[in-house]
Amino acid sequence: MEAFNNAASKSFSTLFFFGLLFLLANFLLFANAKVQSHEFVVQETPVKRLCNTHNIITVNGQYPGPTIEVNEGDTLEIKVTNKAQYNLTIHWHGVRQIRTAWSDGPEFITQCPLKPGASYTYRFTIQGQEGTLWWHAHSSWLRATVYGGLVIRPREGTPYPFTKPKRESLLLLGEWWNANPMDVIKEATRTGGAPNVSDTFTINGQPGDFQKCSSKDTTVVPIDSGETNLIRVVNAALNQQLFFTIANHKFTVVGADASYVKPFTTSVLMLGPGQTTDVLITGDQPPARYYIAARAYASAQGAQFDNTTTTAILEYKTAPCPAKGAPVKTLQATLPAYNDTVTATAFTRSFRSAKKVSLPTDVDENLFITVGLGLQNCPPNANKAQNCQGPNGTRFTASMNNASFVLPSTVSILQAHKQGIPGVFTKDFPVAPPVKFDYTGNVSRSLWQPERGTRVYPLKYGARVQIVLQGTSIVTGENHPIHLHGYDFYILAEGFGNFNPKTDTAKFNLVDPPLRNTASVPVNGWTVIRFVADNPGEKNISQQSTKFLNDS
Question: Where is the signal peptide, in residue numbers (predicted)?
Answer without folding.
Answer: 1-33
